[in-house]
Amino acid sequence: MRIWRPGGLWLQASVVTLGAFDGVHRGHQALVGAAVRRARELGVPAVAWTFDPPPRAHFGGARILTPLGEKLARLSALGLDHLVVVPFDAAYARRDARAFLRELATVAPLEVWVGPDFRFGRGRAGSVATLARCWPVRQMEPIRCPRGERISSSRIRRLLEAGREAEARELLGWPAPGGCRRVA
What we know:
The chain is α/β, with parallel strands linked by helices. Helices cover 36% and strands 16% of the residues. The chain has 8 helices and 6 strands; from the N terminus they run E-E-H-E-H-H-E-H-H-E-H-E-H-H. The chain has a 6-stranded parallel sheet. Strand 5, helix 6 and strand 6 form a beta-alpha-beta unit. Helix 7 packs antiparallel against helix 8. The radius of gyration is 16 Å and the shape is globular.
């Protein structure tokens, strides 16, 4: 997997998946895996587009589940060809949704794969519907644990805060110590 900054990668076609991917938990693994399989079917590169730090950490001070190096290693293990890492800061957060769409166009998506709550652009103005005006979008339903609860980075953070590390590790789906250590 090759790692890029925005504007560094130009492709004539790709399948792209978008997200913060904090924790690269079982839900993220399913999303990225589906995008990689689809890219292989279409004979184009599989690209993930992620943010560092994750927007929830930037805006709300949420604990980061996986430091960037660990996130890169986990995403690489999922078979991606390319990863675009966006440095997420105050200036990037002020960009409107159209700027994000122009940036994404550099990899010429044949399909864009997202989770159920993906938003982008200043004020989270961009939505799945916004993406769908430009490219075919595949929106994956939430992945649930055996008890039926949705797997999410927020839920994993709550489990860790409650000292329920074994449950968090199960949702992450990576061997210990994985993303279950506390990150300041």
